[in-house]
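Bench notes, afternoon.
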Amino acid sequence: MTTLGDFEANTLAGQPQQLSDYLGKVVLVVNTASKCGLTPQYEGLEKLYHDLRDEGLVVLGFPCDQFAHQEFDDNTEIAEFCSLNYGVSFPMFAKIDVNGATAHPLYAWLRTEKGGILGDAIKWNFTKFLLNRDGVVVRRYAPTTPPAEIEADIRALL
């Protein structure tokens, strides 16, 4: 059975990160963008992470530029934007594709595990996937679902 632990991604700093390092935690995976109408969700994601990380939650942010080119070109710019504007302290990864032939393997897997309104395609920035401590996808949330509305589901897994 495939789980989160079977994947690797590069951090914003360009270092490879084994996602197996997050097994044992409840994980919220989000495709993000810095110049989107939903970008203020960073605030809610950071609040969830801050409030629940000691209980075992980790939020993983994956910047993506596939939706109306709403992400910076450079990973350094993404890191600075997230830190300065939203105080993001949860792990952020290098910019990836989430749809199509060039989709990161993690997202190819996430999409097949829990489809959405467009079948398995990611509809827009800030689509969220909740994974249990075993790295199994439990639920998918629409881009417009505020992070605060996911808290009860996260707590149930913690």
